[in-house]
Each structure stands twice: as structure tokens, then as C-alpha cells.
Amino acid sequence: MEIDVFTLFPEWFQWFSAQRHVHNALVAGTSLQCVNFREHTELSGGQVDDTPFGGGAGMVLRVDVMDSALRAHYGIDPVRLREQRRVIALVPGGRTLDDRLVDELAAEPALTLLCGRYEGFDERIVEHFASDTISIGSYVLSGGELAAMVVCDTVLRKLPGALGDERSALEESFSPALGGDPEYPHYTRPAEYRGWHVPEVLLSGHHERIGAWRRERSRERGEHRDGARSR
Ligand code: ADE
Fold it and tell me: Do 51 and 148 fall within a single domain?
């Protein structure tokens, strides 16, 4: 898979790329490339944004700057780019990222992620260049970079070779193997700590009973998600 991230803060992704599972995916052939769209502005002082028409607070990323950056990187008119690959604008109001969308993205050969800043994108960027808008939740980040990292993290761990143990991705929260429910609880040594005991069944070595117990806990967690603990 090839992932290109258009951002004003490419250096943030250096740390991210060095994390074990990301690094593993990169070694296994995925590419994660950052393009600083400030390098593609023809405006003085590296200007990439401007005040909003109609007034209001904040600055808006300019469509001409994004056009130049995409055009320079891909060598085509960016209005045609989304015919070739998913071009994703990260915005608070986009389609919410979930496991199904992650699977969908992980099956793509190439992704382009556009990270907004300030008040966000001039809407013409979204309208004419993007194939998708994605949100990582109903809150506002200072920019799309953290959201892009969440997309990359969740997608890359689905690719072969990213995780140390391939089984980790099979039976994890929200996977089809668990019917879309959250994962069951895990325990490790010591079997008893401060009087808190590990459920007996997990120490039984009886794989069928363990499997049934885990599916049941998973299902319960799915049922009670709205009442998930908040402290
Ligand atoms: N940019 C700002 N907030 C965001 C969010 N919640 N998800 C995706 N991109 C964003």
C-alpha cells in the first residue's frame, strides 16, 4: 500500500513512522510519504491560508495551494486523482472511522490523506479533490494530523506483517470474528492479586469453555457499551 499525507507538519510523522508496527509495515513494503503543501505555494512568505469570505474567525486553507501541491506530486490535474485513488479529507464532520471503514481502506492499493489546519479547508478542496471525508470522532482537533495518524495506525495494523502475531488482528474488538462486539477481557499472571482472582475458566485449559466464555463476555460488552465505565 502507498499512503501520501499532505500536511503542514511532516515532522510529526517521523516519530509516528518509527513506531514498531508502522515500521514493520514500512519494511514489509508499505510506503508512507509526507508532502508539505507549504512548499507548493506561490504566495509570498509561504502563505497557505486566508481569511474566510463572509467574515468570521480563523483562517481557511486555500484551494489554489492544495491544487499546486497535488498537481506537483502526482503530475495530473487533481480533479482526476480521485478516479485513481481514495483522496481523504480529514474533517470533524466526515464519515466516522470504524472497523468496517478501516477494512475498506486497508483493501485499497493507495490512499491520499489531506490534513487541514486552522478553520479547515476551503470547501472547494473537499468538493473537487476529495473522494471521501473522514472524522475520527465528534470533537475538534487543531488539525487533521492526529486524525491522519489514527487512520494510518488502524489501517497499517491490518496489513500482513505489521503485527508481531497475526492472530492479534483476527479476534480483536469490532472484528467480524467477534460479531462486531468489543473484545473480551484479558488476564495474565499473577492469577491472584490483592484478592482479585482471574476467572477460573481461563485457568482450566479447556479451550471450548474458554472460547464460549470469551464470546459471552464480548457479547455482554457489546450490549452494555453505552454504559461503559467512565471512571
Ligand atoms: N480535523 C479536526 N478535527 C477532526 C476530527 N475530529 N476528525 C478528523 N479530522 C479532524
Answer: yes
